[in-house]
Amino acid sequence: MKIGYARVSTLNQKLDLQLNALISAGCEVIYSEKLGATKLRPEFNKCMKSLNKSDTLICYKLDRLGRSLRDVINVIYELNSKGVELISLSDKMDTTTSQGRLMLNILLSFAQFEREIIIDRTKAGLQAARERGVKLGRPLDPKVRENRRKARKMRKQNYKISYICKTLNISRSTCYEYIS
User: Which structural domain, as residue segments, surrounds residue 41?
Assistant: First the structure.
């Protein structure tokens, strides 16, 4: 089944160009939405849920599938895992052909390469920070730091865990975390 998806980013824009192209491409069902500055895309979510193996999702342009390159690539991965073909009319991407699958694999390879570079840079940056003595992680809330100090002191004075929990208004697991 050919399923179309059309989206415009602002309420002032019109869907006509995309809808006409999707109808000409033979879409049997078309999901469309006009969105302002929102990340919620209910029609897109319905579209993705409706797709089954051997369906074809057709869009006017790839950028209609997501708000960023990462979003688009994630959608392509999801489609690929479901066994759904993808056709982007303006971008001339058609995974029903061998050339389209090749282009998709090249695109996905570059995306994977980019992800790995980001991971490598992040690890190197964290290591460099550790070597400089930078303490990583979120700083402790002063109240948490004070409760931790009090819990340790009370435990050294042989107070029972239940008493410490009640006094500091913390759970047993938090108390054990503080005193360990």
Answer: 2-97
Beta partners for 34?
8
Tell me the longest C-alpha to C-alpha distance in the chain.
80
Residues 75 and 161 in one domain: no
Q: Which of 97, 131, 163 is the last residue of a domain?
A: 97
Give the span between the Cα atoms of 37 and 120, in whole angstroms: 33
Query: Which residues are designated catalytic?
Result: 9
Question: How many domains does the chain fold into?
Answer: 2
Residues 7 and 89 in one domain: yes
Give the model's confidence band at 37: pLDDT under 50 very low, under 70 low, under 90 confident, else very high: low
Pairing of strands 2-8, 29-34: parallel
CA atoms within 13 A on the CB side of 53: 2
Report field, pTM of the whole predicted structure over 0.85? no
pLDDT digits (tens, 9 = 90+) for 90-121: 888 888 888 888 887 887 788 778 878 989 99
